[in-house]
Structure formats: C-alpha cells, structure tokens
Recover the amino acids of this structure.
C-alpha cells in the first residue's frame, strides 16, 4: 500500500517540479517583454527586479519539491516502507524563520540559471 502511495506521490511531485520549470521560463519571457514594451527605464528596472524575485520564489518552491523527490526515490528503489504524502509535514519540521527564509530566496535568485538574464536585461533597459 505504501509503495503505491509513494509512486503516486512521486508522479505528482515530478509533474509539479516540471511545471515550476515552465513557470520560471514564463517569468523570464515576461522580463524580456518588460524591457521591450516598457519605455520608462525606472519602471522597467523595477519590473525586472520584481520578476527576478518572483522567479527566485518559484525556484525555491521547486527546490522543496526536489528535496521530497530525492527523499522518496531511495524508498521506491529499495521497495522499503516509508510514509507517503509528507511534503508539507517534512517542510514544516525544518521550515526556516523569516530571515533564513529570505536567505533561501536570495540564494535562489543568485543561482546562475535564475540570475543570468536579469543583469543583462537590466543593462539593456538602462542603455536601450
């Protein structure tokens, strides 16, 4: 029974993990559109900063899903009994406080796959 639940959990989490990747791409496309469409440099920079932060939050959420996937995959591979459907309970048990949570978002924002386009788009907004 537990293995079946773990399989279902893995499938649902994996689908959501991939969905977050698509959402992050949509945020990057919106950032590019902001540079192209918004003529006020200050407003364009503010929108880019907001979108950069939004992508960091999405990637942080995606990372939590990834942590749970990595926790259940060994149990599935070994055929071991493990409690299923524990994403939020596990996160709540280790949830960081305010400053530490903000630090997680900042770390996500500085990951190369997240950060790469934003400084370039900001430079383009300033000099475009």
């Amino acid at each position: 029974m537990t293995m079946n639940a773990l399989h279902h959990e893995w499938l649902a989490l994996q689908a959501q993990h991939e969905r977050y990747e698509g959402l992050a791409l949509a945020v990057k496309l919106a950032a590019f559109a902001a540079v192209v469409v918004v003529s006020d440099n200050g407003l364009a920079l503010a929108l880019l900063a907001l979108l950069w932060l939004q992508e960091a939050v999405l990637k942080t959420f995606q990372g939590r899903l990834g942590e749970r996937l990595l926790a259940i995959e060994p149990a599935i591979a070994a055929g071991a009994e493990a409690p299923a459907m524990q994403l939020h309970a596990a996160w709540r048990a280790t949830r960081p406080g305010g400053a530490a949570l903000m630090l997680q978002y900042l770390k996500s924002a500085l990951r190369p796959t997240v950060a790469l386009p934003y400084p370039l788009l900001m430079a383009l907004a300033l000099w475009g």
Q: What stands out?
A: Helices lie at 2-37, 41-78, 87-94, 98-110, 112-115, 117-127. The radius of gyration is 18 Å. The chain has one domain: 2-127.
